[in-house]
Design a protein that fits this description.
Elements: E1 9-17, H1 19-29, H2 39-44, H3 54-63, H4 66-69, E2 75-82, E3 94-105, E4 109-118, E5 121-132
Antiparallel strand pairs: 1-3, 2-5, 3-4, 4-5
């Protein structure tokens, strides 16, 4: 694989989350905070509805680049800022969009900038992945 060019989109996808997705993630992660599955609890703490787990959002975002990388072991570091919650509607769910674009390239690898949105709102700020060249 040749080094990617700055500005190049290397991967993109949409992931549809449902309440079932949240329950499955809770079981896998052990995060059973009821704001992720109970409307009444979410409302009682002032939330607009049941929220997707932050780590679920972070994980699905970075997984977007793995097919392009060919080896998840090429990921050197990954960081995000959680900027907006993803409310998962009980009937409609929520669709998360991820666009991965090359932000910088150096001798060691590249910085991939992830734009992660839900309803045209950025939900992860400064989502950046450092990857080493193949």
């Amino acid at each position: 694989m040749t080094a990617p060019a700055v500005g190049e989109v290397v991967a993109e996808r949409e992931v549809h989350l449902t309440r079932e997705s949240l329950v499955r993630y809770a079981g896998a992660s052990g995060d059973f905070n009821p704001i992720h599955y109970r409307d009444d609890v979410a409302a009682s703490v002032g939330l607009p509805g049941v929220l997707a787990h932050g780590m679920l959002t972070m994980g699905l975002a970075v997984e977007t680049i793995v097919p392009w990388l060919g080896d998840a072991g090429r990921i050197l570091e990954y960081a995000v800022r959680f900027t907006r919650p993803i409310v998962v509607d009980p009937a409609e769910g929520a669709t998360v969009s991820v666009v991965a674009k090359v932000g910088a390239v150096d001798d060691e690898g590249a910085r991939i900038d992830l734009t992660v949105t839900h309803d045209d709102t950025v939900v992860l700020g400064k989502a950046q992945v450092r990857v080493r060249h193949a």
